[in-house]
Structures are given as C-alpha cells and as structure tokens.
Write a structure and sequence with these properties.
By secondary structure, the protein is an all-alpha fold. It is built from 2 helices and no strands. The radius of gyration is 11 Å and the shape is elongated.
C-alpha cells in the first residue's frame, strides 16, 4: 500500500465518521449522507 492510499483511507474513514456524527445530530439526512459518501468513495477510492 502506498502513502497516497494510506492517506486516502485515513481521510475517507475520518469523513465517514463525521458524516455519521452529522446524521446523528440531524444536520444531514440519511439520503444526503449517502450521497456524500458515494462522492467520497468516487474521489478517494478507499481500499479499506
């Protein structure tokens, strides 16, 4: 695994945790969170 892949994986995991927190606090709806997660997966291509 390259440094870029590790960095992208850590960024992805951090962003998913933030999405979960925002959804729990009712700042984002489930649909919005799923849309953002799909965009994160597209951009970062996580390997986790």
């Amino acid at each position: 695994m390259t440094r870029n892949e590790i960095s992208d994986n850590l960024t992805f995991v951090s962003a998913v945790q933030m999405l979960r927190q925002l959804t729990e606090e009712n700042v984002l709806t489930e649909a919005e969170a799923e849309k953002v997660r799909a965009e994160l997966e597209r951009r970062l291509r996580p390997t986790v």
